[in-house]
Amino acid sequence: MKRSGNAVAVISAAALTVVLIGCATTGIAGTGKKAERARFGEIERVDNWLAGADAAGNSTAAKGLPVDGRVIQPIFVHASIAEHHVIAWFDGHEKYEAVEAFVYSKDRIRAILTRHDNSQIDAWGFPDGETPETVSAREHYESKITFKMAPNGKNAELSMKTPEGEDLFLSYVGQDKPDPEYGGMTDPGLHSPDGGLPILFRDASSTSAKESFVRIGGIRYAIPEDPEISAPPYFIAYTAFLSNGYHSFILSTFPERKVSLALPEPGVATGNRDGSTGIVSIAPEGRDRLRFNPPLPSLASLADGDTASSRFAVFFEGSTKEEVYGDAIVARSGNVITLSFRPAYPAWARAARSMVYTIELSDDAATVSASMERK
User: Do 164 and 284 have their domain in common?
Assistant: First the structure.
């Protein structure tokens, strides 16, 4: 991962803890040791992106009829905030090269093992009956998982079983406590390129010391140096990292789903757009938020041939900084509406993470699918 300085309409609480694509596995500050990565360069951030939007939103739509507050909400956001996230790459194991864990609470933990071919398998340590329903989209198994932070706030331990039934233990020894200075956005690289727009943010992070290690089946595996962020002889980093406050805000792709014309779900705020009810913001858990300016237009009110645009931006709890932003472009042809999400910032999102929602209208409902939009 590269450091840069209810789904709504709403999935169950358990499902909201899911990062559908295991894209945390490229680390901090460009530490994707073996995963393929893209270097897209840097682009200049535009301050106050939303405020600079055209109030009319380049709309060709006539003033629509009010739809009594009801909306078609096609965007499915999978949002969660883990208390802790730990990840380590290690050398020498015949099958696995990395382990990580999202710690939502002491008895709700999701771990991921990454193989040498970059395929992954999820381990779920949730109470009975709480395994998120969306887990079926990925290879998975159940395991007792424990995570402990040391009193010094720097060190941590992770214990679990591998799919083969062997004990796995990660001893994380931090060089310091997780620090907001080393938090920020995470670049997912090219991992799961068809999975959507993964927006990941760390409140605070640290890198490990040489003493960290992984043990599987009684055999100890070393955690190598990270040459990308090391500055020898003054500072040597290793490919294990600990974060406090790990935000996952995923606009995911999905096959066809039925969506009703209905009053907004909790977490969806609405406002007037061209005389109809538009979507102002989506905040699945009321914390991290996707905002639009002007509001995303009422899809049910668009006429054949209408087009409109809005700007969008994602904000993380407690921050006024637009971490990811871009344009949302809507067009109707017959009974089919396309909604394109085209990120403008950061560079990795602009280069490879544009999405398109295809919405087929029928009476008071719609069939929606989401896929990547390729140039």
Answer: no
